[in-house]
TrEMBL record:
Pfam families in the cross-refs: FA_desaturase
Domain Fatty acid desaturase: 72-341
PANTHER family in UniProt: ACYL-COA DELTA-9-DESATURASE, DESB (PTHR19353:SF84), FATTY ACID DESATURASE 2 (PTHR19353)
Native source species: Lysobacter gummosus
Name of the protein: Acyl-CoA desaturase
């Protein structure tokens, strides 16, 4: 789809665009300090206490409900919702952001981006490779960014169509429910193994740490905590399961809204050859979309409601993105670049449209170039 709201920039404009965004980054980094450290520590504490209260309510509902019948449903539902909320906050506001190195300057070993391990079945090491490096470096570059459809979905007409994609409306729903498992096996490249391009020995070496992490998470949520309820284990087990699914669906929704709305673009490999800083920023802008909704939306999305700012500055504490967004949007406007933002229902409706439309054969439309062709010729 052609995005007429973006005007091609001259090389000089592109350089200035990058310089302005770099200067904004430098000003923000210079302001980092105690307020940012206090914030992330408060969120970590909130995750701990919300999770604790959620689990206690599950036990109260499971055990107490056997003796006081009216207690069962309110306590189990409240406990499940609180546990799901804690898992969302840990996943998005803590785990994702900490592993980007946003708080490395604090020198806190518990918030070290290189060693932090989050509360899902995916390993932190694999995520740091597939997401922090591959996705954030080569955002929406076909053949370099595995997050374009995650190897399961065709979301852009530039992706070659196969009959398999006719199933993607169903696959997309299953993927949302099991999102943490999809993330866990992404770096394993199972398709290459099934095609015989990876040996069984090599696959086993790659799977071993993932398998250990999966086992640890399964043991914690579906064996250990339910076992503490003794013969009343079933409500606790189901509550843990629903809380994990809540986290998975919410994470999937936020990530897809940030990357697969109508105006988001993909790029060929040749587009990043000799890529300048300004060109990199422009590619990040055209490969991202934001969500409106205010402070609660920002908190619950780990501030990925500001996906554009996150792609510009992945290692700056995400609580800064709302303030950065004001200047980023103004800069984009001066350079004639569309700043893609909208409500959650609006953006997710566009994602659903992509999933349904591109399950069928489609051809790419004409897109405006990032840089003016005549300016390139002159240069």
């Amino acid at each position: 789809m052609t995005t007429a709201r973006n005007r091609p920039l001259t090389p000089t404009e592109l350089d200035r665009f990058g310089e302005e965004l770099d200067a904004l980054r430098a000003r923000t980094v210079a302001q980092l300090g105690r307020v940012d450290a206090d914030y992330i520590r408060r969120v970590v504490a909130a995750v701990r206490y919300i999770s604790l209260f959620g689990r206690l309510l599950l036990f109260v509902g499971a055990i107490g409900g056997a003796f006081v019948s009216w207690l069962f449903w309110p306590a189990c539902i409240a406990g499940t919702v609180l546990l799901g909320l804690a898992k969302i906050l840990e996943n998005m506001e803590v785990g994702h952001n900490v592993m980007h190195g946003q708080y490395d300057w604090m020198r806190d070993p518990h918030l070290d981006g290189k060693t932090y391990e989050w509360d899902i079945v995916a390993t932190g090491d694999n995520w740091r490779k597939t997401h922090n490096y591959m996705h954030h470096t080569w955002t929406n570059v076909r053949g370099m960014d595995d997050d374009i459809g995650y190897g399961l979905l065709r979301l852009f007409p530039e992706q070659r169509w196969r009959a398999f994609y006719l199933l993607q409306p169903f696959i997309a729903v299953v993927f949302a429910i099991l999102f943490e498992w999809g993330v866990a096996i992404q770096e394993l490249r199972v398709g290459r193994w099934l095609a015989g391009k990876t040996t069984h020995r090599a696959m086993w070496r790659k799977f071993a740490p993932v398998g250990r992490k999966m086992g640890k998470q399964l043991l914690k949520d579906y064996v250990l905590f339910p076992a503490l309820a003794g013969p009343f284990f079933l409500p606790v087990l189901i509550g843990n399961l629903i809380a994990n699914v809540m986290r998975n669906i919410w994470t999937y929704t936020v990530i897809f809204c940030g990357h697969f709305t109508t105006d988001v673009e993909v790029f060929p490999k040749e587009s990043v050859r000799n890529e300048s800083r300004g060109h990199w920023y422009l590619r990040q802008l055209r490969g991202s979309a934001n969500l409106t909704g205010g402070k609660w939306m920002d908190l619950m999305t780990g501030n990925l409601s500001h996906q554009i700012e996150h792609h510009f500055y992945p290692d700056i504490p995400a609580r800064r993105y709302a303030a950065l967004a004001v200047e980023v949007r103004e800069i984009c406007g001066r350079y004639g670049q569309h700043y893609d933002t909208g409500s959650l229902p609006k953006q997710f409706a566009q994602v659903i449209w992509r999933i349904l439309r591109h399950a069928w054969p489609s051809r790419p439309g004409k897109r405006r170039p990032l840089v003016r062709a005549e300016a390139v010729a002159e240069a």
